[in-house]
Amino acid sequence: MTSTLPTQLPGPTPEHFTSRLRSPAVAARVGLWLGLSFGVCFLTGLLSHYAQNTSQPIPFPTSPSWGYRVTQGLHVITGTAAVPLLLVKLWTVYPRLFERPPSLRVRQLLVTGLERVSILALVASSIFMLVSGLTNTASWYVWHFGFRAAHYGVAWVAIGSLLVHIAVKLPVIREALLGDVDDTHSHDRATAVDQGVMSRRALLRTTWLASGTAVVLTAGATVPWLRTVSVFGIRSGDGPQGIPVNRTARAAGLGDDELGDSWRLTVTNGDQSVSLSRADLAGMTQRTETLPIACVEGWSANGDWTGVRMSDVLALVGADPESDVTVSSIQQNGPYYTVNTLQKNFTGDDRTLLALRLNGKELDPDHGYPCRLIAPNRPGVLQTKWLGSIEVQA
Ligand SMILES: Nc1nc2c(c(=O)[nH]1)N[C@H]1C(S)=C(S)[C@@H](COP(=O)(O)O)O[C@H]1N2
Ligand SMILES: [Mo]
Predict the structure, then answer these.
(1) Is 334 exposed, middle or buried (0-12, 13-18, 19+ CB in 10 A)?
(2) I want to staple 239 with a disulfide (CB 3.0 to 4.6 A). Which of 87, 244, 298, 304 is the partner?
């Protein structure tokens, strides 16, 4: 006896989708690249998240100085590449959502139900990751939640459900990848009988091209020779002194009063404290280091920074150069970006400077005049501008 329960979900029936382009052969190939992009994006994302943690049981290394620039560049590039891949993948597989479970036995219903829930989690989290990431690279903060916490939390949902999905589909993936793209027999839906508007190979080529184009249009934000073609690498253009600016002095609420002669840097170690004017800092031994600003949003640029070593300034208050310190900006409209911890391996690194000059000139106010922090291999968001105080942590 067959059941008469309504097993068909509302909406189109599977018979509605007749294109042979929608096949495991296409889905597996696009899925392979999508999975690789997600994998690289996830790992580089974990690094970026860890680099921003105040407490780092395993010290985040200070070398190579360009490491974070590369990993965060990869993070944004693979995320961008994933957008066209995800769209094609969803287009290829979504008719499956309208398929009825193979039988109405409780076990089958349960398996099908679980699989669909995991697919739902995967699709929803993937879309969330790419949309929130993309709007962030466009520096468009429309979110009413903390971007970092949400993007990090949902990443685990995405990668977890992706692993479940791969495990469930492994036999199909294997067969599809080993077989010929144009093979219309194995695992194809019975109703997929139309040739479609193009060949499967052409669809795949178009997909790779779309993905590559998306990368080229944005990667100039971090790869200098791509700048001229990266029309969407929106901050790739020059800011003052050849380096982009994410927040100007004016946007930080700082003007001549705050940044003028009355400015002082307070350095504190327990009950020892000094207050330094810009002339005091300029009178100390000056060093120049070539270090990148590598914004979490994906853009990055190298600068020649000149200023005083962090360890030289700490010596004025008798502090061990290898101390965790709290670095604060005079900027008032925080709390983001204005206060953060510099871990002891960064504090003690000779390349970590309180910079006064950039590329041979006085720092532009938008780059943090009178004085900003610049340290090797550190997310841009932690390179505090308009410093006000440095305090050795107890
Ligand atoms: N006080 C303060 N420091 C700050 C910021 C800020 O908004 N306020 N932005 C940070 C971010 S997100 C980046 S990427 C770098 C950018 O430095 P730049 O504007 O000199 O290129 O500064 C960092 N330092
Ligand atoms: Mo940034």
Answers:
(1) exposed
(2) 244
Q: Are residues 262 and 120 in the same domain?
A: no
DSSP 112-142: HHHHHHHHHHHHHHHHHHHHHHHHHHTT---
Q: Backbone phi, then psi, for 281, in 5-degree steps?
A: -65, -40
Tell me, what CATH number does 312's domain have?
3.90.420.10
Same domain, 64 and 212: yes
Mutate to test the pocket of ligand 1, among 385, 386, 389 (most ligand atoms within 8 A of CB): 385
Residue nearest to atom 12 of ligand 1 (CA): 381
Q: Whose CA is nearest to atom 10 of ligand 1?
A: 381
For residue 339, give the ligand nearest its CA.
Answer: 1
Q: How many domains does the chain have?
A: 2
pLDDT digits (tens, 9 = 90+) for 173-221: 999 999 999 887 767 778 888 888 899 999 999 999 999 998 888 776 6
Beta carbons of 86 and 93 less than 8 angstroms apart: no
If asked whether residues 290 and 219 sit together in one domain, one would say no
